[in-house]
Amino acid sequence: MTLTRITSDGITDGSIVTADIANDAVNADKLASNSVVSASIVDGSIVNADINASAAIAGSKISPNFGSQNITTSGEIEITGSNTVLKFTENDANPDFGFLGNVGSLRVQDITNSANLFIFEQNRVRSIKNFDAEAGLDVTGAIKSTGNVSLDASKELGVFETDTSLGFTNSAKLSFDFSSNLARIRSSGNGSFSARPLTFNIVNTEAMRIDTSGRLLLGTTTEGHAAADDLTIENTSADMGITLRSGTSGQGAIYFSDGTSGDDEYRGIINYNHASNFFSFFTNASERMRIDSSGRVGINQTSFATSDTMLSISELTGHLEVGLLSKNDSACVINFGDPEDYNIGRIKYANDDNSMRFDANGSERMRIDSSGNLGVGSANPNRGSHNRTITLSNTATSARTAVEIEGNTGNCHGALEFYNNGTLVSGLNSRGSDRLQFVTGSSGDVRGQFTSNGLNFGSDTAAANALDDYEEGTWTPAFRASSASGNSSTNVNEAKYTKIGQMVHVSCYITNTAHHNSGTGGTLRITGLPFQNTGNHVAISVGYFSAFIQSQVFVSGTVQPGTSEVLIRHLTGANTSTSNMDYSNAVGTSTEIIFDVTYETAS
């Protein structure tokens, strides 16, 4: 029997079914190339079990559309070509993503927007968009980059400025790392670590800077004076300050140190104590000044004698000085005042004339000039030629000027003493209750003293020996006939008296010009003595007489006891005694006499 080859053209479609073909009945080598096409294979007629694992069906033989079926393999999926793509396409409006192989790199790409997300290259991975590691990022090696962030092998994280025109070798770099258990933030240049400022910005405005010298600048990019430029704070548009806040029982302080141990750690301190609310200021590690809660200032002391003491200065190891300095032609002034008059009292040293001036109630009251002369109420205390003077002046109407010296001892209450080159030469002492003594010599010998009884000489204080009055003046003598009812007309040429204590000395030069109209009988009397004679008869001394009617050999007289009259006596012949002069026989209308006498009065 001869078999004829059956070709596909000789088989009617559907005439041979799967059941007509035994297993292995048709080998692959029996099928001509392209003899079985997809149209000849019924859907579902070939299952996975029908395909040998080593069948190696070329991808070109399989349509890429697998529908909704999953592709599962324990082997590899290889995509080859010069530009390979693995796409993930969603049936919605969200972007589609994919993996793209291109020129030795693998890109993760937003295919919809043609935007690369990551680029995997041989030596690096680049994140084109922001990288968010929500679960953290654990790096055991180095992150190297020609971009803006790197983490090197020493675990130093570097952030570079974005201006690549500078080149990364010299660009600014902010790095974070640790060394010797210290966390560090460094600003430098990449690679060389050359100095770069470290700035802190709020949005795009710089708020703080640490410059390349380590100086801290707040609100400014310009440091302060070279002697104090480690911290500079600026706010020129408003008020500015620094606040140190501590607990109500704590302290706030600024320490100035030149060492790391002992007193060198706090050589200078500015400290505020909140518990007692006082400021204290230290120098050389010791408190030197304090301002307490009442505003009182203590220098070299921490307590005050009274609540009214607003400034207290002490120096217990030596003398204490307070200095005020001003220009050569200016002045140093201490003012005393109240809310209405800040300088109603004043102490002023004027450098232009080197005088010290003292004001009270708004006006100068005392001055010490450059020569040491003291003027009270006078701006020109040296009016004479003395080397040192004290001038007291008050030119106001009905005003008086006084010097008062007060003491509180039983013997000497006060003294005014005069020295010559350190040696007492004279003085005035106030002693007891009523004595003012005049003393001379270095021993202060008493030469005289005023008491309530008057002036005593030496150390004598007896009341009987006191000179209690001194008086000078004029008096009005007159001729008078003892029997007349009045005085004759008398021209007083001279008439004076001096009274010292109870002793009165008088003198006169008088001329009779007319007799009294009541008559000329009786003796001649000179009336008008300034004080009554309380002693015995006292003889007058006649120095001159003229124009008596009778010729006179001798003219005399006596102050009569208990009167203010002089009885004139005379001698006209060879009589051995004087007699009372008869007025009518002796006195003419031009009679003259000059006499003086000293007599005693009661007081």
Explain this structure to me?
This protein has 603 residues and is mostly beta strands. Among the domains are: 251-313; 324-395, no CATH class; 410-467, no CATH class; 470-600, no CATH class. 1% of the residues lie in helices and 39% in strands. Strands 14-15-16-17-18-19 form a six-stranded mixed beta sheet, with no helix packed on it. A six-stranded mixed beta sheet has the order 20-21-22-23-24-25, with no helix packed on it.
How would you sum up the major sheet? 6 strands, mixed
Q: Averaged pLDDT, please?
A: 83
Spatial order of strands in the largest sheet: 14-15-16-17-18-19
The low-confidence runs, each spanning 5 or more residues with pLDDT under 50, are 163-170
Helix content class? under 10%
Based on secondary structure, the structural category is mainly beta
Q: Helical element count?
A: 1
Q: Report strand %.
A: 35-45%
Query: Would you report the number of β strands?
Result: 41
Which descriptor suits the 3D outline? rod-shaped
> In angstroms, what separates the terminal alpha carbons?
208 Å
Radius of gyration: 68 Å
Short description:
This protein has 603 residues and is mainly beta. Among the domains are: 251-313; 324-395, no CATH class; 410-467, no CATH class; 470-600, no CATH class. It contains one helix and 41 strands.
